[in-house]
Amino acid sequence: MNIAPGWALAQHAAALLAVDPAGLGGALLRGLSPDLRERWEALLRGLLPPDTPWRTLPPHIGDERLLGGLDLGATLRQARPVAQRGLLAECDGGLLRVPQAQQLGAALAARLAAVLDDGEVRLAREGFARCDPARLALLAYDDGVEGNDPPPAALADRLALQLDLSGLAWRDAGPSAPWTAEAVAAARERLPRLRTDEAALDALCAAAEALGIASSRAPWFALRVARAAAALDGRLTVAQADAELAARLVLAPRAMRLPPGPPPDEAPPPERSEAPERENAGDQTVEAGTLEDRLIEAARSSIDPRLLAQLQIARLGGAPRGGAGKRGALQRSLLRGRPIGTLAGEPRRGARLNLIDTLRAAAPWQPLRRREARCAAAVQVRREDFRVTRHQMHRRTTAVFAVDASGSAALHRLAEAKGAVELLLADCYVRRDQVAVLGFRGAGAELLLPPTRSLPRAKRALAGLPGGGGTPLAAGLDAAWVVADAARRRGDTPLVVLLTDGRANIARDGSPDRARAEQDALASAARWRGAGIAALLVDTSPRPDPRARALAERMQARYLPLPMAEAATLSAAVRQASAVLVRG
User: Fold this and answer.
1) What domains, with CATH codes, occur in the chain?
2) Is 196 exposed, middle or buried (0-12, 13-18, 19+ CB in 10 A)?
3) 147, 415, 500, 520: least surrounded by Cβ within 10 Å?
């Protein structure tokens, strides 16, 4: 049976993770089907020691269960604070599964990241302090569904191995891996005695810089992966093949740009007739310069060209935060929404008393209060112990699409802009968001569609948008401001997506004066600064225009240049950038 290259790489990643789980931090696997996920986990568990802890993170776990805390029942029985271990401490020396990691909230991701950094869980509660070891690895799974948010960037950055296995089927997987549990155990014992080649470390750092990777964890993780690969192959020195494998597993998924390739007419370097003087009998070391080129080429061969649009979005402001399916800005409340914890306070104005957390707050003080009151009451609760439940809900988003329908835009990208907006309108309909469409051309701007959730009306309004005429950019900005400000006053979260080439030539009064039109546009953009309205300016010109960038900087909007993009590419880029704006 033939094994697909992606599955062979996944098997190799499982073996490397079994060699150094805590050192690698874990693995992030995207697009792996449930049956292949079980098969990959069975392979990993077979390579680990039999007594390795293996836990699964519940989707809505609380801090008491995650980090540990006060054992309320034992505390009330014994009349003294009694602590209990949390889930992370139970995973010490093992692995923690995180299904649907893209739905992790920012707070939970931060707690997991802190434990991965420190290797322990520190607790400081009323009446006791505790520190439990928690050296573990995470197995984070991302469904890989297009349009969903990626896992939190702070957590993904701490997982050395990242694999995109979308498209793999059961028939692509081989019968077994070429490694045994005994071989992995021997590699684990060999790892501390491994020698690190400074040339390999320098080459990994240089390759990370060439790929635009800003995180300093990436070359460090790449070195650890290369060391684990060398130990797995029975060697005590990192070889070229180990560094290339580390580049494919660690550097390629984190790449933010493609380094320029060699010129097509450049002749390949002559082969060396003799091995380097420092080469040992069983090792394959090369010079740093040659190794750097090979690492960059290995990473380049592992990067999917379709990810270029996503790399542009990552440069805009990082991965979106928040779980998939969330919409609008977060709003905290004491009355409605999803419970997110408790707050010290009295149950007034409809706030609900959280009895369990109230008892937890009162439990450590019971011995002192009994002595002060000189009574044997079961539990003494005071006003300062009251805890009320906090809630969190998402406000509705109103997406305002301001489309440049002037002659220059129609000549360049109006058709692609219309197609992208139609795809984005469908996404807004699925999320039950409101959408508004306005176009500006000729002498002014026109509100084609007031905020609505009707997808057919939005499509008809967009289809009826003609092209041609001048570019009244100031009028378009003013009209978008009026619609967005009205949505904000209603309590919605406004999001303005401005699709234009930035070439204003119609002034605010309708006169064809290019210089005054540009001044009016910058003056209209100035009112957006500090207004709290999320805005995205998509430069639709064939080449990124400095005037569009200057306009985006003036209005404090995200600038997204997408030259020569199709409607689907433009839609995907705007969708991800909009998620960054609204939730960031």
Assistant:
1) 5-181 (3.40.50.300), 194-257+287-315 (1.10.8), 330-394 (no CATH), 397-583 (3.40.50.410)
2) middle
3) 415
